[in-house]
Design brief:
Blueprint: H1 24-50, H2 56-68, H3 70-79, H4 83-101, H5 111-119, E1 125-127, E2 131-132, E3 137-141, E4 148-151, E5 159-165, E6 175-178, E7 184-185, E8 192-194, E9 200-206, E10 209-211
Helix pairs in contact: 4-5
Length: about 210
C-alpha cells in the first residue's frame, strides 16, 4: 500500500474524504469507515423515530445534530456519487500515472492508445476458437471448451491488442498466440502461451515486434 498523500477530513465530524492524488487502496478503507459512521447515525435516527416514547427534546437535539453535520453528509455523498464517477476518477488516475511513465519520444507510438484502452476499456470481443486478431481490439478469451490459438495481425504500423482470460480456463486449456510471418514476440521468433488463469496480456506492435 502506498503512503497516503492527502488526509482530507470533513469539517464537523472529521470524517476521512477521498482525494484524486491518493491511491484507491488507501482511500477505500477510509471511505468505508466514514460511511459506516454515517450509517450508524441514520440507524439511530430510524430507531428513535420508530420508538413509541419519542421525547420532543431528544428529537430536537437529534435534528440540531443533523443540521450541524449536514455538510459532512453532503460531502460524503458527493464523494460517492456513483460507480461511474468513481470509475472515471480511477481511470483518470491510471491514465496520469501511466502517461507520466512514458518517454516523450514515444508520444506518437501505440503506448498512448494502449494507456487509453486500459483506462477506458473498449467492449470486449468474445473469443473461443482459432482466430486472426484485429489491431486495436480487446478480446475476452474463453477456453472452457478446449485450447485454441489466435494469430497476431500482420502490420506495418504501430498498434496493439489486449487479450484477457475471462473464463479462468487458460490454466487448463491454454491459448497460444501465434506470430504472423516475419514477426517476433519479445524480440524472439517464438509464439506466446497464455496459460495462467485470469491472465491479461497487453501487446504492443512496433517495427515487426510484439511486446507485452
Amino acid at each position: 500500500m502506498a503512503d497516503l498523500i492527502h488526509d482530507d477530513r470533513s469539517a464537523h465530524l472529521s470524517l476521512p474524504l477521498p482525494h484524486p492524488s491518493n491511491d484507491l487502496e488507501d482511500d477505500a478503507p477510509r471511505l468505508r469507515q466514514a460511511l459506516l459512521l454515517v450509517d450508524a447515525k441514520f440507524a439511530a435516527l430510524d430507531t428513535l423515530l420508530a420508538s413509541d416514547d419519542v421525547d420532543l427534546d431528544q428529537l430536537q437535539e437529534l435534528v440540531n445534530a443533523i443540521k450541524a453535520n449536514a455538510s459532512d453528509v453532503v460531502a460524503l455523498l458527493a464523494a460517492k456519487a456513483g460507480r461511474d464517477e468513481l470509475a472515471a476518477v480511477i481511470a483518470d488516475k491510471a491514465s496520469r500515472a501511466e502517461l507520466a511513465a512514458l518517454d516523450a519520444d514515444k508520444a506518437s507510438k501505440p503506448e498512448l492508445a494502449l494507456v487509453a484502452a486500459k483506462a477506458f476499456p473498449p467492449p470486449a470481443i468474445p473469443l473461443s476458437t482459432d482466430t486472426v486478431l484485429q489491431p486495436g481490439q480487446h478480446y475476452a478469451l474463453d477456453s472452457r471448451n478446449g485450447a485454441f490459438a489466435v494469430t497476431l495481425p500482420k502490420l506495418s504500423a504501430p498498434s496493439w491488442v489486449w487479450l484477457r482470460d475471462v473464463s479462468g480456463a487458460c490454466a487448463t486449456n491454454p491459448v497460444t498466440v501465434l506470430r504472423a510471418d516475419g514477426q517476433t514476440i519479445r524480440g524472439l521468433a517464438d509464439d506466446l502461451l497464455i496459460d495462467s488463469a485470469r491472465d491479461s496480456v497487453f501487446m504492443l506492435h512496433d517495427s515487426n515486434n510484439w511486446t507485452d
